[in-house]
Amino acid sequence: MTTPVLRSAIPKPPAEPLPPAMPPVPRITVAAFCETPETTACILAAARDRHMMRAQVAVHHGGITAAEGTLGSSPSPNVIIVETQAGRAETLKALDGLAHACDPGTKVIVIGHVNDILLYRELISRGVSEYLIAPIEPLDLIGTITGIFNRPDTDAFGRTIAVVGAKGGAGASTIAHNLAATIARELHFASVIVDLDIAFGTASLDLNLDPPQGVADALAAPDRLDGNFVDRLMVKCTDNLNLLAAPALLDRPWDLDQTVVDKLLGTLRSTHPAVVLDMPHTWTSWARHALVDADIIVIVAAPDLANLRNTKNMIDVLRHARPSDRPPHLVLNQLGLPKRPEISVADFAKAVGLDPAATIAFDAQLFGNAANNGHMLHHVQPNGRATCTLNELAATIMGRTRKGHREAGFLQPLLARLASLRGDKSQG
User: How far is CA 363 from the centre of its chain?
Assistant: First the structure.
């Protein structure tokens, strides 16, 4: 009689390690300029992948030349992918022209057909994010884009823009909501409004929405805070605008944990280029920390004495807490209110030591209709003065200027190094 062989005694081949999980690509805009059908097909396949669900991908034909012509007359996307079949000299010359059509901060991926280490080094020294050699696979391209925004030595992807009123009733919430909508609509940045005025927030009213969940649910579950969880709590307003609404309930005191607020904002920054904070008019420890920690600060004030005092106090605190940062952007709102004595723009600026980045006149009909009907200002007056002012303010905040007046985007590291070398020679 034969002895049965136990299954457990049969040696099993070692299991292959699973590949590391690839994080999803954040909410970015990607423009690809291809020269070959193979690369076009690869990018289209990558765009359909689940990892690219948040990204908006546009595929064009024509390579670097087409990219320069297209980007010279429209806002730059977050990522530009250009394919070139040229050699080293021609590729570098073409990219020098493309650099002047790009916004600062634009990431550039070059797909080439030449395996040239010298070309790779030249591209990296110019600030190009990555050089891939064709043919490429969709997952390789997705991994490259993901890696660009998840490198430990790079800055956080998104910017937090804290909008705070110098005094209650100055119109800071209205400015915050319209500013976020303008960034999304005019500059094509995926933006999110975070209504941190938990008890009295008006973002959902201004956008004519009634979301069942929002920022309070996120802050109540710090252990679950990640991109997917926060996505489920947000409500989609437009293609590029999301809202994390305040509950606006008074059934409990809303004492927020500074650590949890930081974690929430960090999660949002990892997936959104622009995170606009509608700050409450309170001076708690967490609110002060969120304000000081923001990348960009916008102070909204009306032209009266109380607003002037509070604005000056706020600017003094921020200058002390953020000595290396740029000063906040000052918005003087509600100018020209009938029968109300007001401080002139020049006197206000002189007293606080800061010139206003924008001035917005009082317009009862415009702002009243927008608020009562749940519309943004551009819906009520698309070409109105307030709308145009917010367009300019959004461009200033996000570093968008006219094409002919801005510095080269991805060539900036090279230009800075050349300037340094010239300075060393002149001193020698």
Answer: 30
Rg of the Cα trace of the chain? 25
pTM of structure: 0.74
Residue 352, both tokens: 């606080």
Which of 316, 311, 288, 121 shows the shortest CA–CA distance to 196?
288
Q: Could you give the CA distance from residue 111 to residue 130 in angstroms, rounded to a whole number?
A: 8
Is 366 within 8 Å of 384 (Cβ atoms)? yes
Show the tokens assigned to 353.
Answer: 């030591």
Instruction: State the Cα–Cα distance between residues 155 and 195, nearest whole angstrom.
Output: 24
Beta-carbon count within 10 A of 152 CB: 4
Q: What is the pLDDT along the chain (428 residues), one digit of tens a residue?
A: 444 444 444 444 444 444 455 677 888 889 999 999 999 999 999 999 888 888 889 999 988 888 888 887 677 888 999 999 988 888 888 888 787 777 777 889 999 998 888 888 888 888 888 999 999 999 899 999 988 887 655 555 788 999 999 999 999 999 999 999 999 999 888 999 999 999 999 999 999 999 989 999 999 999 998 888 999 999 999 989 999 999 988 988 888 999 999 999 989 988 898 999 999 999 999 999 999 999 899 999 999 999 999 999 999 999 999 887 889 999 999 999 998 999 999 999 999 999 999 999 999 999 999 999 999 999 999 999 999 999 999 999 987 754 444 444 455 544 444 444 444 444 44
